[in-house]
Design brief:
- It is built from 10 helices and 13 strands.
- By secondary structure, the chain is of the alpha/beta class.
- The chain has a 7-stranded mixed beta sheet, sandwiched between helices. The chain has a two-stranded parallel sheet with strand order 7-10. A two-stranded parallel ribbon has the order 8-13.
- The N terminus is likely disordered.
């Protein structure tokens, strides 16, 4: 398995009947899917091809067509997106909107033109209406404007769901989407400026521990979130690709009872990193949404016995990965 910008995992068969193209292959979720596929989850009739932005600029329709004619996928897991944390989103809403609209339209249209059997795209709970009742579920995506901080990204992602329904209605395509809650794990983006909350906290503690700096959490620590370990999400993505037949999206998340505050999450990271220094909270920094509690009732209807990795264990494994791979980690 070569780690060029396009690499394959899978069947020893000279002619596997399914070729799964994964866009965003070097990202957090892409690397998790690669790991799960490479360690036993690959079916005999499958070949998995992971592609990064180095292989093809997905904002360029011609480049996407060329990629699809080269790989000849029968199935697509579409993860690629322009992403960033709260503060980057607030600064570049137009860029997030235009780039993600282009990427998504190019991937879905190339899938249609090349006869792809099934596409599973990745949405996010941050696309839901800002003013809503909780818990949020799959029927509520379009019930009102998203939070102002990331409206560009949110509307671009919402339109994947609209396009999936339109492709189904007009052409009978089987394109769907999953909505994970806050994903974390090995190969995350640990940037303090642009990263999501858990990896940013891990990086801050790494620096505090190794350089004697104070550890400061941005915000009050009171917002609540559901976190999902990337390796758990990878297993659920593979199930969705093989088994889930609805066009309507499905939330992939731990249950409402597993929601934690940022402060509780920070304490787990402190423990996972073995940090014993001072901790402070910078309450001049924005908190973002207080909560976005999501229901996983639909997932549990399909998979009542799916076991999630305990959060403390998943955080410890991610902290261990960062400590071991700090020099190569995205940051």
């Amino acid at each position: 398995m070569s780690h060029t910008s396009l690499w394959e995992v899978g069947s020893e068969s000279s002619n596997p009947s399914k070729t799964v193209l994964v866009t965003g292959g070097s990202g957090l979720v892409g690397k998790a899917i690669e790991h799960v596929v490479a360690t036993g989850e690959c079916a005999e009739d499958e070949k998995w091809v992971f592609v990064t932005s180095k292989e093809a600029d997905l904002t360029d329709a011609a480049a996407v067509k060329k990629l699809f004619s080269k790989v000849k996928p029968t199935h697509v897991i579409h993860l690629a997106a322009m992403v960033g944390g709260l503060f980057k989103n607030m600064k570049y809403n137009l860029d997030f909107l235009r780039k993600n609209l282009a990427i998504n339209d190019n991937v879905l249209q190339a899938s249609f033109e090349s006869g792809v059997v099934k596409v599973v795209s990745c949405l996010s709970t941050c696309i839901f209406p800002d003013k809503t009742t909780y818990p949020i579920d799959e029927t509520m995506i379009h019930n009102g404007p998203p939070h102002n901080s990331n409206f560009g990204y949110s509307y671009a992602k919402r339109l994947i769901d609209v396009q999936n329904r339109a492709y189904a209605e007009q052409h009978g395509c089987k394109y769907t989407a999953v909505i994970p809650t806050n994903v974390f794990g090995p190969h995350d983006n640990f940037s303090i400026e642009d990263g999501h909350v858990l990896p940013a906290l891990m990086h801050k503690i790494y620096l505090a521990k190794n350089e004697g700096k104070e550890f400061t959490v941005w915000g009050t620590g009171s917002p609540r979130r559901q976190f999902i370990y990337s390796l758990d999400l990878a297993r659920l993505f593979i199930w969705t690709l093989r088994e889930y037949d609805e066009i309507d999206p499905i939330i992939l998340s731990v249950g409402e009872e597993d929601e934690v505050s940022i402060k509780e999450a920070a304490n787990m990271v402190i423990e996972g990193m073995g940090y014993t220094g001072e901790v402070s909270y910078d309450t001049t920094k924005a908190d973002g949404q207080f909560k976005k509690t999501a229901s996983n009732a639909k997932l549990r209807k399909y998979l009542p016995n799916f076991k999630f990795t305990p959060m403390k264990q998943a955080i410890k494994e991610t902290c261990d990965w960062l400590n071991k791979n700090y020099d190569i980690a995205r940051k």
